[in-house]
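Project outcomes to date are best conveyed with an example. Our students and postdoctoral researchers have been running inverse folding experiments weekly, and each run begins with a structure described purely in tokens. The record below, which covers 299 residues, was selected by the lab manager from last quarter's runs and is presented without edits.
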């Protein structure tokens, strides 16, 4: 059973209502736009009162402990509070592909994925829709939802909002995109990314600890971190792995990702206009190992 099943229903409802009330002058994410999303205003994430979903499906391309035998039940949320120039899902995150769904409909998506055998419900880019996800979870729980929830974010999350998820989300899977703010500012329009991301990951780890995997190899609780290697070491891998090993835990499960390829606006930046080399990937993994990390490293 997932953690939210142990929470009194009235507590879950209170959390959802509190989160929804913050949409009136939105500070759900660190951008704190102040948009009145209850009255139709949009903030930086281009998102309003109603959740917007691009797709929901069992996914077999996620990390092995999430996929298990029957897949991770991904729900791709439309919009994003980052603006990465190389985003591989920019049609969803920045161009708004998707459709608005009610809380009931979002709950039905979760139940559908659970009925399909998925080991978890994996919200992709959930940050700007935390209130709507909690609102839907109230209904989904009443419908019998019991699998763990995965919070799969870009790492640009507010600690105050994450605290509303304490005891609700069992698995956190944030990106640690950058080790330096200069790169975060230039490529994701987030000049304070490292301060925000490190505080968020520490809070996530405080809530759920290192990744726990059951006897069938399926994640049941804990933290997984993703780090996408960029060309020319633009992701600041050394700083990221040092933080994870020294300030979070050497037990942190880290997926060092090799799949960078230029798309969206990346060709406007000569340094981002090529895939990474095998050597760049090996260097990143070696940095992680040298820092004391080991869980999740592929080579
Ligand atoms: S969630 Fe969206 S509207 Fe709210 S503060 Fe963040 S970017 Fe702004």
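After processing, the design step wrote out the following sequence:
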């Amino acid at each position: 059973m997932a953690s939210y099943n142990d929470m009194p229903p009235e507590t879950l409802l209170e959390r959802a209502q509190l989160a929804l009330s913050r949409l009136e002058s939105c500070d759900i994410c660190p951008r704190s736009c102040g948009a009145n999303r209850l009255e139709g205003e949009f903030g930086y994430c281009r998102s309003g009162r109603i959740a917007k979903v691009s797709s929901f499906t069992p996914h077999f391309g996620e990390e092995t402990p999430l996929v298990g035998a029957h897949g991770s039940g991904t729900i791709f949320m439309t919009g994003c509070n980052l603006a990465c120039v190389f985003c591989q899902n920019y049609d969803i995150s920045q161009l708004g592909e998707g459709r608005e769904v009610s809380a009931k409909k979002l709950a039905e998506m979760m139940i559908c994925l659970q009925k399909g055998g998925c080991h978890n419900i994996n919200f992709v880019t959930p940050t700007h829709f935390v209130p709507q996800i909690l609102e839907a979870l109230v209904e989904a729980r009443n419908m019998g939802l019991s699998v763990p929830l995965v919070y799969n974010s870009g790492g640009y999350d507010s600690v105050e909002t994450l605290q509303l998820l304490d005891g609700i989300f069992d698995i956190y899977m944030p990106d640690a995109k950058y080790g330096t703010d200069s790169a975060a500012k230039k490529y994701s329009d987030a000049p304070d990314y490292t301060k925000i991301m490190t505080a968020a990951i520490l809070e996530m780890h405080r809530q759920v600890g290192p990744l726990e995997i059951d006897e069938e190899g399926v994640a049941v609780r804990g933290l997984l971190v993703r780090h996408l290697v960029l060309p020319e070491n633009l992701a600041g891998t050394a700083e990221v792995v040092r933080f994870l090993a020294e300030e979070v835990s050497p037990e942190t499960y880290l997926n060092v990702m090799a799949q960078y390829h230029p798309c969206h606006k990346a060709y406007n930046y000569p340094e981002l206009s090529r895939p990474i080399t095998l050597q760049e990937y090996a260097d990143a993994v070696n940095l992680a190992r040298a820092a004391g990390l080991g869980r999740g490293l592929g080579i």
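The chain has one domain: 3-291. Residues 26-29, 31-33, 35, 43-45, 47, 81, 128 surround iron/sulfur cluster (CB under 6 Å). The training component of this project remains on track.
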